[in-house]
Each structure stands twice: as structure tokens, then as C-alpha cells.
Design brief:
The structure is a single chain. The protein contains 9 helices and 10 strands. By secondary structure, it is of the alpha/beta class. It has 2 domains: about 160 residues, HAD superfamily/HAD-like (Rossmann fold); about 45 residues, no CATH class. It has a 6-stranded parallel beta sheet with strand order 7-6-3-8-9-10, covered by helices on one side. Helix 4 packs parallel to helix 6, helix 5 runs parallel beside helix 9 and helix 7 packs across helix 8.
Length: about 240
């Protein structure tokens, strides 16, 4: 297990380049997470969507190049800071890219096994665990991708249309509230820096999957190379 350090340096630099326009968004001291010895001990799971359950192969590089000079920026927040008509253009392009990706979405390898484990079914499963999806994607793209992947979404699904968006910890708190469980009983499972940051800020364990080459691995409490490896770890602990 890798214990995380500070979330981001004060100059706003991300692990893979400068992350402009979000210094206040990105730099926040981490509360102490519960000392779980294994994520299987958590009472509920909050899952990211794209990269954990669905693979939509989103490519925002042309958008970043056109509007932000190729800089790595938090697109939703950066779009809000633009004047019109650029703000509306960027928001529309983000949605278009997400919907196009959803049309060709595939389930991440191991995703359906993870859902089966959470549902108390399949090899090595224990008691059923409440779970939610919290994503920065638009809701319509999540619904379409879920249909293409053959994934049954949980009753608690939060998208960027909801009041709070990762890395804001309030997004995770809202998911926990809607699941009817204390936030402190949850873990966050994701593949990107915003997932780790949200968990750090919320004071809950951060589980990183698809961690190969991820420069934000030091923000995770638990790290697995693939979703399948994470499922095997859950099964092994439960058996």
C-alpha cells in the first residue's frame, strides 16, 4: 500500500504537465483516511465510470489544443472560465466527444466481475455491498455506454449534471448520502487523478486501478494494475 503525500504542488503542476486554471481546485491538504487494511472491508463502494467500468477511449487532445494551447486543464472548470461563445462551444464539444465515445464503449476487462462481487454473486463474493457511480461525464453518455457494454447501472448515479463534480469531495458525500451509508464507510475506486483527489479530500481510502504508468499513484491508498487484479484481491480477501 502506498501512502499518499500532498495532492498537488502549489504551482498547479500536474504529474503529466501544467494544469492551468485550477490552482485552488487542485491544492488541498488531505484529511486522514480510515485505516482499512484492505478495501474489501469497506461498507460501500463509489466507482468512477470511464476507465473503471466502461472504456470509451475519449480523446480531448484536439479540444485542448484548439482552446487551451494544448495545456492539460480540468476541462469542465476551464470551460466555465471562458467568455462566450467559446464557453458554449467547449461544453458542446465535450458532450459530443463523450457521446461519440459512448457509441463504441466496451466494458473494461474485469468490470462485470467487480459488479458481480459487489452484488454478492460470483466467485469469492461475500455479502452484497452498496455501490454508486460518480463520473464527470454527462449522464446521457453514461446511459448510452452502459447499454452498449451490457452493464446494469446502480440506483445511485451521479454525473456532471448533479450539484457537485469530482474532485469536489461533496460529490462523494452526496453519493454516500443517497446510498444511505456514512461516507466514512466508503472507498473510492478510480483510474484518474480526480478520483484520487476526491477521495483524499473526502478523507476516505482511494483505490487506483489501471495504475500502470499513472503518475498519481502516490495519491492512492491501494493500487492495482488492472480492474481484474482488484477483483482478485477482493475475492482472495473474502474467501
Amino acid at each position: 500500500m502506498t501512502m499518499p503525500r500532498n495532492i498537488m504542488p502549489q504551482n498547479g503542476k500536474s504529474p503529466k504537465g501544467r494544469l492551468r486554471g485550477g490552482e485552488g481546485l487542485l491544492h488541498l491538504a488531505r484529511p486522514a483516511a480510515p485505516a482499512y487494511t484492505h478495501p474489501a472491508r469497506a461498507g460501500a463502494f463509489i466507482l468512477d465510470w470511464d476507465g473503471v467500468l466502461a472504456d470509451t477511449k475519449l480523446d480531448f487532445k484536439p479540444l485542448r489544443q484548439k482552446y487551451f494551447g494544448g495545456e492539460i486543464v480540468p476541462l469542465i472548470e476551464a470551460a466555465s472560465a471562458l467568455p462566450e461563445p467559446a464557453r458554449s462551444e467547449v461544453r458542446a464539444e465535450i458532450r459530443r466527444i463523450e457521446m461519440e465515445g459512448a457509441k463504441n464503449a466496451e466494458a473494461v476487462e474485469g468490470a462485470k466481475d467487480l459488479i458481480a462481487w459487489l452484488s454478492g454473486a460470483g466467485a469469492g463474493a461475500g455479502a452484497e455491498k452498496p455501490w454508486a457511480v460518480v463520473s464527470r461525464n454527462c449522464r446521457d453518455s453514461i446511459l448510452l455506454a452502459a447499454e452498449k457494454c451490457g452493464i446494469a447501472l446502480p440506483s445511485v448515479l451521479l454525473s456532471r449534471e448533479d450539484p457537485h463534480v469530482k474532485p469536489a469531495p461533496e460529490a462523494l458525500a452526496l453519493a454516500a448520502e443517497r446510498m444511505g451509508v456514512p461516507l466514512a464507510n466508503c472507498v473510492m475506486v478510480g483510474d484518474f487523478v480526480y478520483d484520487m483527489m476526491a477521495a483524499n479530500r473526502a478523507g476516505i481510502p482511494a483505490v487506483l486501478v489501471r495504475s500502470r504508468g499513472a503518475d498519481w499513484e502516490d495519491l492512492a491508498d491501494f493500487s492495482y494494475a488492472t480492474v481484474g487484479d482488484f477483483v482478485e484481491a477482493l475475492r482472495s480477501f473474502s474467501s
